[in-house]
Amino acid sequence: MKTAFYYTDAYVDFDYGPLHPLKVIRLKLAYDLIQAYGLLSLPSVHFFPTEKATDEDVATFHSEKYLSVMKEANDGHAQSHAYAYGLGPGDNPVFPGVYDWSLWVTGATIQAVDFVADGQGEIAFNIAGGLHHAQHSRASGFCYVNDAVVGILRLLKKGKRVFYLDLDAHHGDGVQAAFYQTDQVMTVSLHETGHTLFPGCGFEHEIGEGKGKGYSVNLPLPPYTDDETYLWAFEKVVPRLLEAFRPDILVTQLGVDSFANDPLTNLNISIFGFEKVVRRIKDLSRKWVALGGGGYEIWNVARAWTLAWAVMNDVELSEELPEGFLEKAGRLGIHEKKLRGASSKPASENQRREIRSETERVVSYIEKTVFPLVLP
Length: 376
Fold this sequence. Notes:
The chain has 376 residues and is an alpha/beta fold. Helix content is 38%, strand content 11%. It has one domain (3-374): Arginase, Chain A. The protein starts with a strand and ends with a helix.
């Protein structure tokens, strides 16, 4: 098995701002931990410096007008008309190099899909990718260019059927919207319900339209859903859909803002639950392009994506963090010494029953409404 990992220190040249929850330094921290464990020097691993996408690459999904506004904003100043395209103070700030940042992120996703689709290897991981909220003509949810959509469109052009699985706590709305009317891509998103979290969509009744009916699948989860219920829902839905759809390539978004201590979300997943899901994905897929995603407690990001990369390469990691990494992490105020440390928070028995009941209702809806449309 051959795997590929993509990274460049150019990422840390960009900054959403001191008060913004998305800290680009999390990518550097994850890379440093992965490297410290020796996971980039394995015989089967190919490390590739990220290459920027081109204007033509991102134009395969985004509108010409939107991209022109993005280019105008690349100097760090927003024109008055930029607000109509989602750019400005708040979630999607205009910072120096905002368009270049988007090209770097998307470039790594393009490299990853080419690596797998062209038969160079079986698994590729772009930790910077998974910016799944960006729309055709609008920035949204910290996302400017939807690298996942650009990558999937590239796979479709190569004649591939694609299964997109999104584990971020936020619904993968931009990807769903892009493929809502096609049966060549199945999108499945497990996320906190839109009743309590941005972007306020991703309900179970959103199942696609026209040829795409049944090919958009959503599992909206109640706040405080824990490992047990999350894994149960995953097992009830995802393996059966994968088996029925028989994709050429699986694309996953591995956001870790579902963790119990993430500051922006309300799910109750632990790093142990995340690791189990990643292992199941590895069992279920032959060709796999993995993207990063959300995660606003940067220590969660480093640990979880290091574990994910280890799983992708069939490596068991020591609990003790490498000493050299601890010195670097200490300079960022991180002093924990164990790889697996984030547990879920205990919930009351009544709360657990209510969460499980609601999740069972959603799964039952999918079984009764979606399965008959797509299962043989």
